[in-house]
Amino acid sequence: MSWEDWGYKATVAAASDVIVAGARPVAIAYSVGAESADVLVSVARGVGLAASEMGAKVYKGDANWLSGDAWIDVAVVGLSDRPVKRSGARPGDVVVQVGYLGYGAVASRVLESRLDLRDAPREAIERARRPRPLSWAADLIARYASSASDNSDGWALTLYNIARASGVRIDLDEVVVDPALRGLISEEEALYSWEDYNLALTVPRESLDALIRACQPHCWAVGRVSEGSGVYLRGRVVEERGWSWW
Crossing angle of helices 122-129/103-111, nearest 10°? Predict the structure, then answer.
């Protein structure tokens, strides 16, 4: 990855938490520390590109010279008429997947030397380097979703975040992988694909058709919410694991 990629991805990562709450990103501030002016400029270019794609503005950038490891931090401000939390899912709601899975799983294979970079689909590597911000979904989330969580730490953990916060059980019927990756990664790998920055929503059944119409072809009804706890795929318990800071 280039330093421009890192600036872009750091911005999308920060914005994803805002978008999934049903807020449109409007303002971005960032700081970066590095030994080289070229690194500072490249990171700034990546932040600016991501901001432009989301329709947001960069209001503040702070550049710092240092010796040692470089760092980047990004803050994103968004606006929402109805902020959505992880804790609103109710029995009877439908689980909706917004955006494909699989890019992080392919990146894992490359990083772990289980797949040669030259053999990896170019689109998957590009999406791992520069995940697309789903800012267009923010208004739809605010309008239709009862709960939402974004996939930075793995799809299974994303769903567990909703199930635990809402005190419900989630049953999946499918996981939707980018068609270009089918046959390359397994369904099990897709469950733990990380940093895809796709979204998990729960939606009241009466709102489902309107949401699907509004976001086609980028979303799919993939499961349901019921009383209980945990996450299941076609009746099988999904192991709760993914990236964690502790």
Answer: 90
Question: What would the pLDDT profile of 147-158 be if each residue is shown by its tens digit?
Answer: 999 999 999 999
The amino acid occupying position 132 is R
Cβ pair 87, 166 in contact under 8 A: yes
Enter the pTM of the model: 0.92
Residue that terminates a domain, selected from 79, 97, 117: 79
Separation CA 246–CA 242 (nearest Å): 11
Q: Which residues pair with 76 in a beta bridge?
A: 28
Residues 213-222: tens digit of each pLDDT = 999 899 999 9
Residue 11, CA distances (Å) to 8, 74, 122, 207, 225 in order: 5, 6, 22, 31, 32
* Domain end marker among 49, 79, 109: 79
- What lies within 8 Å, CB to CB, of 2 at 6+ separation is 42, 46
- Binned at pLDDT 50, 70 and 90, residue 246 comes out as low
Is residue 56 domain-shared with residue 137, that is, in the same domain?
no
